[in-house]
Predict the structure.
Amino acid sequence: MVAVLWLTAGLKLIAAVLGLALVRKWGKRLPRWTLLALSWGATAVLVLYGGSLVVGQALVKAGVIEASADVDWKAFDWHLFLWDPWFLIWGLLLGATTWGSARQSATR
């Protein structure tokens, strides 16, 4: 479990650095196509992960999907309304930055 947590933290750090590399001068050290491909990939993962969690949990909360009998509703609500939407928002913001950076590169 500790290894999974460290891997997750490392992947989050890489995604954050990708966003910064798109808008900072030091990001120009990487080939542009590599940076954009990595950023689009990270965007897809974050949006799909965050979106599927939020939609699935919202369906449970709405009663469309039956919840397990032993659900910790406090933790469930914490994830639905606070933690998991951040992955979706993060992915959307990284996607907007990547899109803007790709457009800026195309106009140069």
Summary: The mean pLDDT is 90.
